[in-house]
Amino acid sequence: MAMVKLVEYAQASPEVRAVFDDIMATRKVDWVNNIWKALAVHPPTLARVWGQVKEVMGPGGRLDPLTKELIYMAVSMTNNCEYCIKSHGAAARAKGMDEAVFGELAAIVALANQTNRLAIAYQVEADERFEPRFE
Protein backbone atom coordinates (compact mmCIF):
# COMPACT_ATOMS: atom_id res chain seq x y z
CA MET A 1 0.00 0.00 0.00
CA ALA A 2 1.27 3.44 -0.90
CA MET A 3 2.42 5.85 1.82
CA VAL A 4 0.08 8.48 0.36
CA LYS A 5 -3.40 8.51 -1.11
CA LEU A 6 -3.05 8.29 -4.88
CA VAL A 7 -4.36 11.34 -6.72
CA GLU A 8 -6.91 10.27 -9.30
CA TYR A 9 -7.48 12.41 -12.38
CA ALA A 10 -11.02 13.41 -11.35
CA GLN A 11 -9.74 14.83 -8.03
CA ALA A 12 -6.53 16.36 -9.42
CA SER A 13 -5.83 20.07 -9.36
CA PRO A 14 -5.49 21.86 -12.71
CA GLU A 15 -1.69 21.89 -12.25
CA VAL A 16 -1.62 18.10 -11.75
CA ARG A 17 -4.12 17.48 -14.56
CA ALA A 18 -1.82 19.34 -16.94
CA VAL A 19 1.02 16.93 -16.13
CA PHE A 20 -1.31 13.93 -16.27
CA ASP A 21 -2.55 15.11 -19.69
CA ASP A 22 1.03 15.44 -20.91
CA ILE A 23 1.87 11.94 -19.64
CA MET A 24 -1.10 10.45 -21.49
CA ALA A 25 -0.41 12.41 -24.69
CA THR A 26 3.31 11.61 -24.68
CA ARG A 27 2.71 7.92 -24.06
CA LYS A 28 -0.38 7.75 -26.29
CA VAL A 29 -2.44 6.10 -23.54
CA ASP A 30 -5.70 6.90 -21.77
CA TRP A 31 -4.53 6.28 -18.19
CA VAL A 32 -1.91 7.47 -15.69
CA ASN A 33 0.07 4.88 -13.78
CA ASN A 34 0.38 4.80 -10.02
CA ILE A 35 3.85 6.34 -9.64
CA TRP A 36 2.55 9.60 -11.11
CA LYS A 37 -0.58 9.46 -8.97
CA ALA A 38 1.61 9.10 -5.88
CA LEU A 39 3.97 11.90 -6.89
CA ALA A 40 0.96 14.12 -7.57
CA VAL A 41 0.58 14.71 -3.81
CA HIS A 42 3.48 17.13 -4.32
CA PRO A 43 2.93 18.81 -7.71
CA PRO A 44 6.44 20.32 -7.99
CA THR A 45 7.98 16.84 -7.65
CA LEU A 46 5.49 15.41 -10.15
CA ALA A 47 6.31 18.05 -12.74
CA ARG A 48 10.08 17.89 -12.16
CA VAL A 49 10.36 14.10 -12.33
CA TRP A 50 8.03 13.82 -15.34
CA GLY A 51 10.16 16.41 -17.15
CA GLN A 52 13.30 14.41 -16.40
CA VAL A 53 11.69 11.16 -17.55
CA LYS A 54 10.54 12.79 -20.78
CA GLU A 55 14.00 14.19 -21.45
CA VAL A 56 16.09 11.16 -20.52
CA MET A 57 13.85 8.28 -21.58
CA GLY A 58 12.31 9.97 -24.61
CA PRO A 59 13.38 9.68 -28.22
CA GLY A 60 16.71 11.09 -29.16
CA GLY A 61 20.14 10.53 -27.81
CA ARG A 62 22.56 7.79 -28.76
CA LEU A 63 20.87 4.93 -26.87
CA ASP A 64 17.95 3.15 -28.48
CA PRO A 65 14.66 2.90 -26.53
CA LEU A 66 15.08 -0.79 -25.58
CA THR A 67 18.59 -0.19 -24.22
CA LYS A 68 17.28 2.68 -22.09
CA GLU A 69 14.57 0.43 -20.63
CA LEU A 70 17.06 -2.39 -19.96
CA ILE A 71 19.38 0.00 -18.13
CA TYR A 72 16.43 1.27 -16.10
CA MET A 73 15.48 -2.32 -15.26
CA ALA A 74 19.05 -3.19 -14.25
CA VAL A 75 19.25 -0.28 -11.83
CA SER A 76 15.78 -1.09 -10.51
CA MET A 77 16.83 -4.72 -9.89
CA THR A 78 19.85 -3.54 -7.93
CA ASN A 79 17.71 -1.09 -5.96
CA ASN A 80 15.05 -3.78 -5.39
CA CYS A 81 12.27 -1.56 -6.77
CA GLU A 82 9.49 -3.99 -7.66
CA TYR A 83 7.34 -1.22 -9.12
CA CYS A 84 10.07 -0.05 -11.49
CA ILE A 85 11.11 -3.58 -12.49
CA LYS A 86 7.52 -4.33 -13.47
CA SER A 87 6.71 -1.02 -15.16
CA HIS A 88 9.97 -0.80 -17.11
CA GLY A 89 9.79 -4.53 -17.77
CA ALA A 90 6.45 -3.95 -19.49
CA ALA A 91 7.99 -1.09 -21.48
CA ALA A 92 10.98 -3.24 -22.43
CA ARG A 93 8.71 -6.09 -23.56
CA ALA A 94 6.81 -3.61 -25.73
CA LYS A 95 10.15 -2.58 -27.27
CA GLY A 96 11.27 -6.15 -27.99
CA MET A 97 12.62 -7.75 -24.81
CA ASP A 98 11.86 -11.46 -24.67
CA GLU A 99 12.60 -14.09 -22.01
CA ALA A 100 16.09 -14.73 -23.37
CA VAL A 101 17.00 -11.03 -23.23
CA PHE A 102 15.55 -10.80 -19.70
CA GLY A 103 17.57 -13.85 -18.62
CA GLU A 104 20.76 -12.33 -20.01
CA LEU A 105 20.01 -8.99 -18.35
CA ALA A 106 19.39 -10.67 -14.98
CA ALA A 107 22.66 -12.62 -15.29
CA ILE A 108 24.61 -9.43 -16.07
CA VAL A 109 23.01 -7.60 -13.13
CA ALA A 110 23.81 -10.48 -10.77
CA LEU A 111 27.38 -10.75 -12.02
CA ALA A 112 27.95 -6.99 -11.77
CA ASN A 113 26.64 -6.94 -8.21
CA GLN A 114 28.90 -9.85 -7.27
CA THR A 115 32.06 -8.41 -8.80
CA ASN A 116 31.27 -4.90 -7.50
CA ARG A 117 31.02 -6.26 -3.96
CA LEU A 118 34.27 -8.20 -4.36
CA ALA A 119 36.08 -5.12 -5.66
CA ILE A 120 34.68 -3.13 -2.73
CA ALA A 121 35.66 -5.82 -0.22
CA TYR A 122 39.18 -6.10 -1.58
CA GLN A 123 39.38 -2.31 -2.00
CA VAL A 124 40.84 -2.72 -5.47
CA GLU A 125 42.09 0.48 -7.10
CA ALA A 126 41.20 1.02 -10.74
CA ASP A 127 43.97 0.43 -13.25
CA GLU A 128 45.44 3.70 -14.54
CA ARG A 129 44.53 2.75 -18.12
CA PHE A 130 40.83 2.63 -17.07
CA GLU A 131 40.80 6.32 -16.08
CA PRO A 132 38.24 8.14 -18.24
CA ARG A 133 39.66 10.26 -21.02
CA PHE A 134 37.09 11.66 -23.40
CA GLU A 135 38.59 13.46 -26.35
Key terms for this structure?
64% helix
Total of helices:
6
Main β-sheet, in a few words?
none
What overall geometry do the principal axes of the alpha carbons give?
A: elongated
Q: Approximately how much beta-strand content do the residues carry?
A: under 5%
Helix/sheet category = mainly alpha
Q: Runs with pLDDT <50, length 5+?
A: none
Radius of gyration over C-alpha positions, nearest whole angstrom: 18 Å
What string, H for helix and E for strand, traces the elements in order?
HHHHHH
> Please, what is the average pLDDT?
97
Helix content: 55-70%
Number of strands: 0
Q: Ends: how far apart?
A: 49 Å
Question: Could you explain how this protein is built, in words?
Answer:
With about 140 residues, the chain is mainly α. It is about 65% helix and about 0% strand. The protein has six helices and no strands. It is elongated, with a radius of gyration of 18 Å. It starts with 13 loop residues before the first helix and ends in a 13-residue tail after the last helix.
Write the topology of this structure:
Elements: H1 14-27, H2 34-39, H3 43-57, H4 65-79, H5 82-94, H6 99-122
Helix pairs in contact: 1-3, 4-5, 4-6
